[in-house]
Amino acid sequence: MTLTPHPLAPEWLSPRENTDDLESGLFPSTTSRSATGELVIDGVPVGELAATYGTPLYVFSEADFRARARGFREAFNRAFAPETAVDVFYAGKAFLSTRVAQWAAEEGLNIDTASGGELSIALAAGVAPSRIGLHGNNKSDAEIARAVELGLGRIIADSVEEIARISAIATDMGRTASVMLRLTPGVHASTHEYIATAHEDQKFGLSLTPVPGTHTESPNPYLGSPAWTAVEQALGAPAVDLIGLHCHIGSQIFEPTGFELAASKLIGFLARVQASHGVVLPELDLGGGHGIAYTEADHPRAPEEIAEALATAVRAACNEQGIAIPRLSIEPGRSIAGPAGITLYSAGTTKDVVVEDGISRRYIAVDGGMGDNARPVLYDADYAAVLASKRLTGEHVLSRIVGKHCESGDIVVRNVYLPPAVIRGDLLAVPATGAYCHSLSSNYNYLTRPAVVAVRDGETQVLIRRETEEMMLARDTGYTP
CA Rg, the chain, in Å? Predict the structure, then answer.
């Protein structure tokens, strides 16, 4: 039977009568359906998860997370062998808990943190300070001092001013800080403007472009740029060990061109530093930002493909510049955590709304929303969803899954085909929510934040407890338990 697309559906959304392809392509690799049609994650039925832990509920497949972490480490070290090794830093901002940090460390990954709070979680997990990096465009003195005192593997400096602060703090403490400089290579990344981080007009990093009026006829094209000024300052700063350069061009990127161009630009910069100062900076961090599949329209590259393409580009650039390949590092976060997690919701109110010329759209309200997934309202992010508590076949209807927050923009899944018989109490599962959903969660409208549960081999483990109203109110000084 040929299914007719709904006139309000986007072109990329396929009309459907089952969700087999979505479940195999978007959900954790450990996902299946039971004999009764119930969705099962790593041996645990979703009905059991909802009954035990409530909904909304974030669910992680530990096996899937570990496999993706291991996949990046193995693919990149294989692609760059034998010239150099690659350190994989799990970008904790995607999702971090003590056990997740332990999973990453046990799979041979380091941990990348973006605040003192994230650093504290990595430390609480038992990760060695030498395997932790600290990012941030406006680090506090306390964060810098803590990183220096602990002997963190790297502090990624984001401005010229920060280098002087790191130097002063480390000198006062009688320590030496290992520092990388975050450079802005001026590469356009094909992604939402709020998560593109390598163009000039944004808050991160040190530009390679000379400040107007400072560049002369010098053969050095970087002279007078914030990046060059930062290198010279860092090389001369007391208690600072400049170990390398860093860049990050954005997030949720599928095309390889931007990554390869950024690598080429930074390698050219490394070569210029070596020629001008006689200093070989030993490390180069090419960041993360590799895209994942949120919907059927997304076609991410496998770690092997990413690694091989980047290795080819790095080898070519280093050969052109006549320098040895530095030790590489990358920072995947979303591409590890995102596909390993799903969110379970309970369906509530449903209604059909006539939008135009007698054409209607079905609205299905769930018991969560923008408080547990802010990405749709922040970035117009698209998601998919399936009916999880049972399997219903037959032509599906165009639906919009919305939350219970007091905002018309509180949309969980903007466009999805779901069975027409979805009713109150049915479970809906939204895949690819392991990254940036819990991290961005809030108490808007004073909804409590969901629990995070891991599943593995038919067993469950609570990673983060469900927030209660008492826990939420504990910060209110007028509240008496």
Answer: 24
Residues with Cβ within 8 Å of 284's Cβ and at least 6 positions away in sequence, in order, are 244, 245, 246, 263, 266, 267, 270, 326, 327, 328, 329
Exposed, middle or buried, 225 (CB in 10 Å: 0-12/13-18/19+)?
A: buried
For the chain, how are helix, strand and coil distributed in percent, rounded to 5?
Answer: 30, 25, 45
366 CA to centre of own chain: 25
The answer to whether 325 touches 341, Cβ cutoff 8 Å, is no
Q: Which residues contact 344 (CB under 8 A, 6 or more apart)?
A: 46, 49, 50, 55, 56, 57, 59, 388, 427, 428, 429
In this predicted structure, the answer to whether residue 68 has a pLDDT above a threshold of 50 is: yes
77 CB-near residues (< 8 Å, 6+ apart): 85, 86
Helix and strand numbers (H, E) in the chain are 13, 21
d(CA 270, CA 265): 9
Our measurement of the distance from residue 259's CA atom to the centroid of its chain's CA atoms, rounded to an integer in Å, reads 16
Locate the DSSP E strands across 174-270. Answer: 177-184, 206-207, 240-246
323 neighbors 278 (Cβ within 8 angstroms): no
> CA 185, CA 336: separation in Å to the nearest integer?
25
> For the chain, what is the largest distance between any 2 Cα atoms, rounded to a whole number of angstroms?
75
Cα–Cα distance list, 396 to 14, 65, 352, 391, 449 (Å): 10, 31, 14, 12, 31
| Contact between 463 and 121 (Cβ < 8 Å) | no
Q: How many CB atoms lie within 10 A of CB 140?
A: 12
- Each residue of 419-434: b (16+ CB within 10 Å) or e? beebeeebbbbbbbbb
- Alpha carbons 320 and 271: distance in angstroms, whole number: 10
Q: Which residues are catalytic?
A: 406
Return the DSSP state at 293.
Answer: -
Alpha-carbon separation of residue 452 from 42, 91, 255, 461 (angstroms) = 15, 18, 32, 9
Sheet of 44-45: strand order equals 31-33, 39-41, 44-45
pLDDT at residue 197, as a whole number: 45
Enumerate the β-bridge partners of residue 88.
330
Specify the pLDDT at position 192.
39
pLDDT band for position 269 (cuts 50, 70, 90): very high
Amino acid identity at 296: E
- Classify the C-alpha dihedral 331-335-341-345 as positive or negative: positive
Round to whole Å and give the CA distance between 139 and 448: 29
pTM of the entire structure? 0.95
pLDDT (average), residues 306-312: 96
362, HSE (Cβ side, Cα atoms, 13 Å): 18
Q: How many degrees, rounded to 5, is the angle at CA 167 between CA 164 and CA 173?
A: 140
Alpha-carbon gap, residue 160 to 183, rounded angstroms: 11
Structure-token pair, residue 17: 């009568």
